[in-house]
Amino acid sequence: MKTVKSLELKDIQIINKAILEKHPDGGVAIAIVDSHGELLSFLRTDGCPLAAGQIARNKAFTAVRDRQPSGSLGENSRKYGFAVTDLGDPRFTGLGGGLPIETDGAYIGAVGVSGLSQEEDAALSAYGINSLLKAGASQPSED
What we know:
The chain is built from 4 helices and 4 strands; from the N terminus they run H-E-E-H-H-E-E-H. By secondary structure, it is α+β, with helices and mostly antiparallel strands. The chain has a 4-stranded antiparallel beta sheet with strand order 2-1-4-3. Helix 1 packs across helix 4 (118-135). The longest helix is centred in the C-terminal third of the chain and has 18 residues, at 118-135. It is globular, with a radius of gyration of 14 Å. Residues 138-143 have low confidence and may be disordered.
């Protein structure tokens, strides 16, 4: 039997709280996904553009499925001349702001933020993830 780490409610709460405290001005969407890219949590703050919600979910999906920041996929797409749509799932995006959550060599999920510049989105995602890792990611659970 294999034991795997996974995000729990308390982990999601730590990430969301940290991002909201770091950027209390609103205007952002925050998506947190599991290791498969399935949505665990979604927040759209006051003043957030409607489209930012889907983009945040796509950024998180891309980050965990591709096991790299979502913006890196966009950079590689431009550098190597392939379309992100070639990956076969319309949820993949090359926009920055999605970061995978890695602990003990395992990808347990990702955070995607949208609504600001790609750099600001990525910084907020990183802040949320770092807050979780400082607090101590979830203990292994049977999945």
